Amino acid sequence: MTRRLHLNAFLMENGHHEASWRLPESDPHAGTDVAHWKRMARIAERGKLDSLFLADSPVLWGDIGRRPSGALEPTVLLTALAGATDHIGLIATASTTYNEPYNLARRFASLDHISGGRAGWNIVTTAGLDAAQNFNRTHLPSHRDRYDRAAEFVDVSLRLWDSWADDAVLADKAAGVWGDDDRLYPPAHIGPHFRVAGALNLPRSPQGHPLLVQAGSSENGRGFAARYAEAVFTAQQTLADAQAFYVDLKRRAGAAGRDPDTVKILPGIVPAIAATEREALALEEELDRLIKPEYAKRQLAEQLRVSPDALDLDRELPDGLPDEDEIEGAKSRYTLIVTLARRERLTVRQLIGRLGGGRGHRTFAGTPEQVADAIQHWFDNGAADGFNIMPPVLPRGLADFVDHVVPILQHRGLFRTGYEGTTLRDHYGLTRPANRNAAPVPA
Amino acid sequence: MTRRLHLNAFLMENGHHEASWRLPESDPHAGTDVAHWKRMARIAERGKLDSLFLADSPVLWGDIGRRPSGALEPTVLLTALAGATDHIGLIATASTTYNEPYNLARRFASLDHISGGRAGWNIVTTAGLDAAQNFNRTHLPSHRDRYDRAAEFVDVSLRLWDSWADDAVLADKAAGVWGDDDRLYPPAHIGPHFRVAGALNLPRSPQGHPLLVQAGSSENGRGFAARYAEAVFTAQQTLADAQAFYVDLKRRAGAAGRDPDTVKILPGIVPAIAATEREALALEEELDRLIKPEYAKRQLAEQLRVSPDALDLDRELPDGLPDEDEIEGAKSRYTLIVTLARRERLTVRQLIGRLGGGRGHRTFAGTPEQVADAIQHWFDNGAADGFNIMPPVLPRGLADFVDHVVPILQHRGLFRTGYEGTTLRDHYGLTRPANRNAAPVPA
Ligand SMILES: Cc1cc2nc3c(=O)[nH]c(=O)nc-3n(C[C@H](O)[C@H](O)[C@H](O)COP(=O)(O)O)c2cc1C
Ligand SMILES: Cc1cc2nc3c(=O)[nH]c(=O)nc-3n(C[C@H](O)[C@H](O)[C@H](O)COP(=O)(O)O)c2cc1C
């Protein structure tokens, strides 16, 4: 069988371009309107996409002036989308720094039961002091600490998801015995961050456990992904960078004793699609014109840890910025921004335009054919197992992708024409994990 | 207008009788089958009930042999039910002891947005050492501590729900300003249990905040209910007990400066309904015969803090049981059990039968007319503003209630024949709370 692409729809309120909400077609209240999200989910499913994805952080980003800022909690919102779709995978972001394993493992297992095996978890450690301050902290835990906690969090979650043997429910009405207590495996976990004694209060879910997804690209993040992730989202600007990331992560997965094929790597792409290249570029320009640089400059200054006054819209970034080592927040995002600006010698205004379009992800304007080519080029050249599709304007950009790009990819034999399995893991060509606790059935 | 009853459907897997899952009609896997829950929700909505309710505890109760033990997480499950219904209120239980205010307030606000203003929160402090041990604790926090934390939790949640003025979203596309940062009110809360700095990442929800429900009847629990609860679930065995509770709680609400009418009191009733009284009693007997007393005896011994050997199935409870003061778990439930056993001089076997049927709630077997009479009698005599309907067998018992008892109550003018409002608060005759932060609009 030819190698097949995997496609994920990264949904946002009005689109990934920060000014998309200002277009006449956009509903600025869409973020809290479940009908809007259901519409997008159905479009993605019409395109036979593997999954859809919701980002998240448990904090209100500063400047609600800038763009729509309401964020329905993702496990809850995905449950609503499970009811509006039948096949597509549903990936929610949740933080290991600001949750408890018992509660979160349980919510994902619940979503997996409710959706018939379509749940995925994008595991993040949540950069930023402002989030920490919503959760009893006065300081941001260090990058190292956050990833250590994340590893223990996932270890405990795996034990919780495996705490019922697959055959623990007997349902023996005649004998009056519902379940077999001897087929429970309480974690009895005692570690530096967590103590979790008891079994989950849910039978093992259709997928065994949700698909584990990861999206941090720092040294710690890659180590974590190599150990746990079954799919990886990443922001890569050039083919060479994407190839280097791809080779590195697959190598790390192998070194961690895993089959590198079971870690699917999906760089992001922000496609501006139109019938002609010129129209596609015009759409990008129209959106960029709607950016208000004062908001974006303030955020950029925060990310770079300089004062806004140190940034001049019509000059390049100043010298003397910190090294990635000194950043305790989102390390890889920081490096990506600085590298992009230096490599292309962008002014602050140009940099803001690029980031406003895709927040560091690759932006691409072109015809459906050109977008398909761009995707195939990376896919064929060792840079990607698939893509994270981040339409600049939603829902229109997703419909354009599904109706015009997907058929080309299907025609080239690169993408499915119908769902072949029922679970998210099926879509990604991954098997249901065996329960680590249950003894092998005697022959 | 005549005073109107409020009715809540308390849903469980196969019903409130612990042996209901053993009946031929019951699907023992129903607990994790979202279609089953949607069916029940639609039946409750067909009956024009005010709300439906899910209990919860973040722990696996011992003895999965005894009865179905899977428990989909309630905020997630209710979101699925929101998509399957249009009017009925949706009340989820969640613990203040094992959650963080920012996360939980956000999930309830999300559910309120997604359901169009139908969310309610049953606030519990979660009794039991086994739950504590799933959340990093080696000891159960004391009853007093749990209620102190609960009060601070709700205070912070209210501030989070009010952290956006109702008019904070400007959606001004022309000016490029989405929201007004000056109409945000970050809690900046620093208290003994929580520090929560920032505003919620969601605009204020349709109801302002979810309906606040409470179900603990101890001294601490009543104090808490008087301050915060808009609806109260309670287990009461006799008219006199229910009247005393009703008077006491209304008085406390008044003393706390609230209008007692804004606290709706709903005792539980477990109605076994059949065309004749004899058939209803036969249904109860059939169910009681299916109870396996060894499971129930073990749990009763735990609740009473004695060894199982101290309980003889064919004798009354032993002497020398602890006082409520010494119980750090579910105080009022403990007292209810002991009082019931002593008052009616029940053997352990009889007590187990009574508790197996309704876990301490009033059980009642009769014709639809008799059930309607039982309800009206308490309602007319200062014991209830409505009822928590706990069918022994589900979905059948709920359908029987909706199709045979509700029409009688409607015919007597005691219950609505159609939904008049759109939100859960509308159904309970409560108004949308004003935002405590926002300054009154200048005239
Ligand atoms: C496509 C994509 C989506 C992401 N979504 C989130 C998110 O929803 N929440 C979050 O806190 N971080 C998100 N991140 C950031 C990373 O998960 C990670 O937290 C961040 O890059 C910091 O980790 P690092 O220092 O290892 O790079 C995302 C990254 C990518 C590439
Ligand atoms: C109808 C009803 C439903 C209840 N549901 C829950 C529940 O879902 N979870 C829980 O921990 N306690 C539940 N309780 C128990 C109380 O909320 C409370 O936690 C318990 O009675 C201990 O509090 P107390 O000591 O103040 O009575 C319920 C009680 C009643 C009457």
- Our Rg estimate of chain A from Cα atoms comes to 22 Å
Number of domains of chain A: 1
Task: Kindly estimate the percentage of residues of chain A that lie in beta strands according to DSSP.
Answer: 5-15%
**Poorly predicted runs of 5 or more residues of chain A:** none
Task: Report mean pLDDT of chain A, rounded to a whole number.
Answer: 95
CATH overall fold name of chain A: TIM Barrel
Highest CATH level, the class of chain A = Alpha Beta
Bound ligands, named by name, code or SMILES: flavin mononucleotide
According to CATH, the homologous superfamily of chain A is Luciferase-like domain
Shape of chain A: globular
Would you identify the CATH architecture of chain A?
Answer: Alpha-Beta Barrel
Secondary-structure element order of chain A, N to C: EHEHEHEHHEEEEEHEHEHHHHEHEHH
Distance between the termini of chain A: 34 Å
Tally of alpha and pi helices of chain A:
14
Question: What are the defining features of this structure?
Answer:
oxidoreductase (chains A, B); two-stranded antiparallel ribbon; TIM Barrel; alpha/beta; globular; homodimer
Give a structural overview.
2 copies of one chain form a homodimer. Chain A is an alpha/beta fold and 443 residues long. Chain A has a single domain (6-273, 361-427), classed as Luciferase-like domain (TIM Barrel, Alpha-Beta Barrel), CATH 3.20.20. Chain A is 38% helix and 14% strand. Chain A contains 14 helices and 13 strands. The first copy, chain A, has helices spanning 34-46, 74-82, 101-114, 129-132, 143-161, 219-228, 239-255, 277-289, 293-304, 331-343, 348-358, 368-380, 396-411, 424-427, and strands at residues 6-10, 51-54, 89-95, 119-124, 169-172, 177-179, 189-190, 195-196, 211-214, 231-234, 264-273, 362-366, 386-389. In chain A, the strands form 3 sheets. Chain A has an 8-stranded parallel β-barrel, surrounded by 7 helices. Chain A has a two-stranded antiparallel sheet with strand order 5-6. A two-stranded antiparallel sheet of chain A has the order 7-8. In chain A, helix 3 links the parallel strand 3 (89-95) and strand 4 (119-124). In chain A, helix 5 (143-161) packs parallel to helix 6 (219-228). Chain A is globular, with a radius of gyration of 22 Å. The relative contact order of chain A is 0.16. One flavin mononucleotide is lined by residues 55-57, 93, 124-127, 215-218, 220-221, 233-235, 268, 330-333, 388 of chain A. Chains A, B: Pfam families: Bac_luciferase. Chains A, B: This is Monooxygenase. Chains A, B: FMN binds at residues 56, 93, 143, 147, 217-218. Chains A, B: Belongs to the NtaA/SnaA/DszA monooxygenase family. Chains A, B: Keywords: Flavoprotein, FMN, Monooxygenase, Oxidoreductase.
